[in-house]
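Let us work through a complete example step by step.
Step 1: write down the sequence.
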Amino acid sequence: MTDPRRLVPRTDTVLGEPAVAQAVARLGAAVVKGVVVAAQQQVRDGQLAPEAVVATVLDALPAEVSGLRPVINATGVLLHTNLGRAPLSAAAVAALSAAAGTTDVELDLATGARGRRGRGALDALAAAVPTAGAAHVVNNGAAALVLAATALSAGREIVIARGEMVEIGDGFRLPELLASTGARLREVGTTNRVTRADYADAIGPDTGFVLKVHPSNFVVRGFTSSVGPEQLQGLGVPVVADIGSGLLHPHPVLPAEPDVTTSLAAGAHLVTASGDKLLGGPQAGLIFGANDLVHQLRRHPLARALRVDKLTLAALEATVRGPITPTATGLTATVESLTARAKALAEALSADGVDAVVAPSRATVGGGGAPGVELESAALSLPADYTARLRSARPPVLGRTERGRCLLDLRSVPVERDDALAAAVRSVAAAR
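Step 2: predict the structure and record it as tokens.
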């Protein structure tokens, strides 16, 4: 009987195959060799024919070196936190690629001297919100608030409404985040109601600033009252507004969502927001406001630890200056256009024997933005077991199960991904 070990193709022979060698150049020798070794073991175990090793290796190789896999978001949640929130625009992706090498991120090419770091992104933000005296960028929205609290209120008090002591996700709570900076919180009002007098009574010589937090992931209705930045003027301390979702200007689809421009006009001295939500950019914390306060934050030692890299700066600038983002496109898509796409997909898949029909749907913003707002949408409706099966497709597709069916909501799927979505559905249908 032939020893199975004699039938195993040599490692260098497999690696020398042209297609495998190309994969080595793309993925690295260690990644490819690991897949080759696994295939060789299958031959030893009698699970694979020796002549099938190369094909098996090529089929098992990952598309990228990174473990992160591109996923089609068909949940109807535009800013899905588990999927990385805002998908970047083509312009931002191109900017990332350009910035991946050596760049003039902190160099003035005209003089050869050190230049202002992130000047392109900061200039873009300043142009987008001309009423802001200055802008600064840190690595996420929470970091923006932490920097403000540390620079302005470490060892002092932050006055905040009791109903705005929110949890921001994954168990992180605003009171604990702010307390970690060394600031003390002075809660005012009740869970559902607060007045200007509550704030005024709490202001004292130890007050660092008044904090207004937009409750971006829940809604309180009924017997309520709140106080906006415009009512907090004249208290003798800065007003910091954490608006969360990152709109730079009012949006007609989301009239109740706060934005940077309006918040500054209403009297906020500083506004903090996230870059990877409704702005549609990379993860970043955005700070806008009075020049002296922004300068104080920028020069604080903690700012160095919260500094963003050149890739974030490049993607952020391209997002602000560039064309409409996928997030904005998904937000403003008409129900008629979504229904037409769903109908075309359903007809094409039905012709292939797939149980696919069009279904009305309701989408949401997600990502801690526009709580309670539902967007009328359209979905491709499939048998319920497709929800789990599509997560293993290539590319993976994330949908949701509703009313005993798998719904693939097209409001969160860019139109250019419709063919890939259909291919994934066909692959699942063929394997059922």
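Step 3: interpret the result. The CA atoms of residues 166 and 174 lie 6 Å apart.
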